[in-house]
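With this grant's support, we have settled on a layout for protein records. A representative record follows, to show the layout.
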Amino acid sequence: RSRAPIWIALSLLLIAIAGGAFGYYYLFLRTPPPNVGLSITQPDHVMLGEPFVIDVSYENNSDQILKNAELLLTLPEGISLLGAPDAKRFASVTVGDIAQSGFGKHTFTFVAVKGVDSVKHFDIKMKYSLEKGTSQFERKAPADVAIGAPALAVNLALPQSIVGGQHFDIALDYRNDSV
Protein backbone atom coordinates (compact mmCIF):
# COMPACT_ATOMS: atom_id res chain seq x y z
CA ARG A 1 0.00 0.00 0.00
CA SER A 2 1.15 3.55 -0.80
CA ARG A 3 1.73 6.15 1.88
CA ALA A 4 1.60 9.04 -0.61
CA PRO A 5 -2.02 10.06 0.17
CA ILE A 6 -1.17 10.34 3.89
CA TRP A 7 1.89 12.51 3.21
CA ILE A 8 -0.09 14.71 0.85
CA ALA A 9 -2.87 15.12 3.42
CA LEU A 10 -0.37 15.96 6.19
CA SER A 11 1.42 18.46 3.96
CA LEU A 12 -1.84 20.17 3.07
CA LEU A 13 -2.82 20.27 6.75
CA LEU A 14 0.51 21.87 7.71
CA ILE A 15 0.16 24.45 4.91
CA ALA A 16 -3.38 25.27 6.10
CA ILE A 17 -2.21 25.68 9.71
CA ALA A 18 0.71 27.93 8.67
CA GLY A 19 -1.62 30.02 6.46
CA GLY A 20 -4.13 30.35 9.28
CA ALA A 21 -1.43 31.44 11.73
CA PHE A 22 -0.12 34.03 9.28
CA GLY A 23 -3.66 35.32 8.60
CA TYR A 24 -4.40 35.57 12.32
CA TYR A 25 -1.18 37.53 12.91
CA TYR A 26 -1.79 39.81 9.94
CA LEU A 27 -5.39 40.59 10.89
CA PHE A 28 -5.20 40.75 14.70
CA LEU A 29 -1.67 41.01 16.06
CA ARG A 30 0.21 43.14 13.55
CA THR A 31 0.63 46.83 14.35
CA PRO A 32 -0.92 48.79 11.47
CA PRO A 33 1.27 51.39 9.77
CA PRO A 34 0.81 54.97 10.96
CA ASN A 35 -1.52 57.23 9.05
CA VAL A 36 -0.16 60.78 9.12
CA GLY A 37 -1.76 63.63 7.21
CA LEU A 38 0.55 66.40 5.97
CA SER A 39 -1.03 69.43 4.30
CA ILE A 40 0.82 72.38 2.77
CA THR A 41 -0.60 75.86 2.13
CA GLN A 42 1.55 78.20 0.07
CA PRO A 43 1.02 81.16 -2.26
CA ASP A 44 0.99 80.37 -5.96
CA HIS A 45 2.94 83.50 -6.87
CA VAL A 46 5.15 85.96 -4.96
CA MET A 47 7.32 88.91 -5.94
CA LEU A 48 11.10 88.90 -5.56
CA GLY A 49 11.96 90.45 -2.18
CA GLU A 50 8.45 90.10 -0.78
CA PRO A 51 8.11 87.91 2.36
CA PHE A 52 5.71 84.96 2.08
CA VAL A 53 4.58 82.12 4.33
CA ILE A 54 4.21 78.38 3.93
CA ASP A 55 1.90 76.72 6.46
CA VAL A 56 2.53 73.06 7.26
CA SER A 57 -0.38 71.29 8.96
CA TYR A 58 -0.09 67.76 10.32
CA GLU A 59 -2.51 65.26 11.78
CA ASN A 60 -2.07 61.86 13.42
CA ASN A 61 -4.88 59.74 11.97
CA SER A 62 -3.59 56.51 13.47
CA ASP A 63 -4.34 54.78 16.76
CA GLN A 64 -0.74 55.16 17.95
CA ILE A 65 1.25 57.98 19.52
CA LEU A 66 3.88 59.41 17.19
CA LYS A 67 7.17 60.00 19.01
CA ASN A 68 9.87 62.60 18.33
CA ALA A 69 8.14 64.15 15.34
CA GLU A 70 10.11 66.75 13.40
CA LEU A 71 9.26 68.95 10.39
CA LEU A 72 12.07 69.42 7.85
CA LEU A 73 12.09 71.80 4.87
CA THR A 74 14.77 71.86 2.19
CA LEU A 75 15.01 75.35 0.69
CA PRO A 76 15.60 75.90 -3.02
CA GLU A 77 18.40 78.14 -4.27
CA GLY A 78 17.39 81.82 -4.08
CA ILE A 79 15.01 81.39 -1.11
CA SER A 80 15.95 82.42 2.43
CA LEU A 81 14.26 81.75 5.74
CA LEU A 82 13.34 85.18 7.09
CA GLY A 83 15.66 86.09 9.95
CA ALA A 84 18.21 83.35 9.14
CA PRO A 85 21.50 83.55 7.21
CA ASP A 86 21.16 83.35 3.41
CA ALA A 87 23.41 80.28 3.28
CA LYS A 88 20.99 78.21 5.38
CA ARG A 89 19.45 75.63 3.01
CA PHE A 90 17.08 73.90 5.42
CA ALA A 91 14.65 74.64 8.22
CA SER A 92 13.58 72.26 10.95
CA VAL A 93 11.11 72.37 13.82
CA THR A 94 10.86 69.79 16.59
CA VAL A 95 7.18 68.94 17.05
CA GLY A 96 7.67 66.29 19.76
CA ASP A 97 5.06 63.63 20.47
CA ILE A 98 1.71 63.71 18.66
CA ALA A 99 -1.20 62.00 20.42
CA GLN A 100 -3.78 59.85 18.70
CA SER A 101 -5.97 62.15 16.57
CA GLY A 102 -3.58 64.98 17.46
CA PHE A 103 -2.88 67.78 15.03
CA GLY A 104 -0.91 70.98 14.71
CA LYS A 105 0.38 73.66 12.37
CA HIS A 106 3.62 75.51 11.89
CA THR A 107 4.19 78.63 9.78
CA PHE A 108 7.50 79.27 8.02
CA THR A 109 8.27 82.75 6.63
CA PHE A 110 10.54 83.06 3.59
CA VAL A 111 11.76 85.69 1.15
CA ALA A 112 12.84 85.19 -2.45
CA VAL A 113 16.23 86.84 -2.99
CA LYS A 114 16.90 85.71 -6.57
CA GLY A 115 15.23 83.84 -9.38
CA VAL A 116 12.91 86.26 -11.22
CA ASP A 117 10.33 84.42 -13.37
CA SER A 118 11.13 81.00 -11.94
CA VAL A 119 9.36 78.32 -9.93
CA LYS A 120 10.92 77.29 -6.64
CA HIS A 121 10.36 73.75 -5.32
CA PHE A 122 10.28 73.09 -1.56
CA ASP A 123 10.74 69.57 -0.16
CA ILE A 124 8.80 69.23 3.08
CA LYS A 125 8.75 66.13 5.24
CA MET A 126 7.80 64.98 8.70
CA LYS A 127 9.98 62.39 10.43
CA TYR A 128 8.67 60.40 13.39
CA SER A 129 8.82 57.05 15.14
CA LEU A 130 6.10 54.99 16.79
CA GLU A 131 5.46 54.60 20.48
CA LYS A 132 6.26 50.88 20.20
CA GLY A 133 9.39 50.38 18.17
CA THR A 134 12.55 52.08 17.01
CA SER A 135 11.87 52.36 13.28
CA GLN A 136 11.77 55.86 11.84
CA PHE A 137 9.09 56.87 9.36
CA GLU A 138 8.66 59.92 7.17
CA ARG A 139 5.86 61.55 5.26
CA LYS A 140 6.67 63.90 2.34
CA ALA A 141 4.75 66.73 0.68
CA PRO A 142 5.99 69.10 -2.04
CA ALA A 143 5.29 72.81 -2.49
CA ASP A 144 5.97 74.99 -5.54
CA VAL A 145 6.02 78.79 -5.52
CA ALA A 146 6.36 80.97 -8.65
CA ILE A 147 8.67 83.98 -8.27
CA GLY A 148 7.76 87.10 -10.25
CA ALA A 149 9.27 90.54 -10.81
CA PRO A 150 10.97 92.42 -7.96
CA ALA A 151 8.69 94.02 -5.39
CA LEU A 152 10.72 97.24 -5.48
CA ALA A 153 11.53 99.06 -8.73
CA VAL A 154 14.46 101.49 -8.55
CA ASN A 155 15.46 104.07 -11.18
CA LEU A 156 18.73 105.96 -10.80
CA ALA A 157 19.38 109.04 -13.02
CA LEU A 158 22.96 110.31 -13.39
CA PRO A 159 24.35 113.15 -15.49
CA GLN A 160 25.83 112.22 -18.90
CA SER A 161 29.30 113.46 -17.97
CA ILE A 162 31.04 114.70 -14.87
CA VAL A 163 34.05 117.01 -14.73
CA GLY A 164 36.51 116.35 -11.92
CA GLY A 165 35.76 118.39 -8.81
CA GLN A 166 32.32 119.46 -10.07
CA HIS A 167 29.22 118.90 -7.92
CA PHE A 168 26.41 116.94 -9.57
CA ASP A 169 22.91 115.75 -8.75
CA ILE A 170 21.63 112.18 -8.66
CA ALA A 171 17.92 111.44 -8.98
CA LEU A 172 16.65 108.29 -7.31
CA ASP A 173 13.10 107.14 -7.96
CA TYR A 174 11.59 104.00 -6.47
CA ARG A 175 8.23 102.32 -6.59
CA ASN A 176 6.87 99.60 -4.27
CA ASP A 177 5.05 97.12 -6.53
CA SER A 178 4.12 94.67 -3.78
CA VAL A 179 0.50 94.32 -2.83
Notes: The radius of gyration is 30 Å.
